[in-house]
Specification:
Layout lengths: L1 H26 L4 H8 L2 E3 L4 E6 L2 E6 L5 E3 L8 H13 L9 E3 L11 H16 L6 H6 L4 E2 L5 E8 L2 E8 L8 E7 L8 H18 L4
Antiparallel strand pairs: 1-2, 2-3, 3-4, 5-9, 6-7, 7-8, 8-9
Amino acid sequence: MAQEKRFKTEIKQNNYIAALKQAKEKLTTLEPEGIVERSGADYNEAKQEFKLVMAGEDYLISYPEGEVTFAAKDQEVQLPIKVLILHYLNQASGASLEGRLISYREVPNGGDFYYSTFKKRATNPLVRLFGENADKLVPAAKYLGGKSADLGDASVTIPVFPKIPVTYVIWEGDDELPPSGSVLFDASVISYLPTEDLAFVASVPVWAFKGIIKNL
């Protein structure tokens, strides 16, 4: 069993390595000005690097090499995060927000197929953290650049990427029903990242919440 787990981990690692290589190659084919306009990132021409905020954290991305580092922390960025950031820079469309929220299942090209993974990564942990602590959702979101929304018993919208706001909703339970939650996207999201990446996008703030909520 342990050997099988290690084998699966190695395969996943190799897949990320291959995806990172492809994403770096794609970045070299794009002009910085276009990336800035479509993604909302900043570009320092003198340093030849982008600055991109993801869920309240600043990242630097060298151009054209595509090396991803923290702007203010001396530690290695996790490989999946590097891939996600480059995918966003490469694929951002620049489309305006539509002002219409959709669920992950409504995302074309695989929302239903990846929903179980999405629920496991984002919705279920959200409910575990805030289902009985709904009052902590708004203050926790402020650490990530989020603000209160007007849904459920508590809700927030967090700009996970400059052009991808994600809304997190909690309904408190009662004697008959357990707590529940929902994660929603602006409908424009379908032009920014593929469906599989969006499951990862939604989970990034939830991971951060785990550390934040301990201090609230």
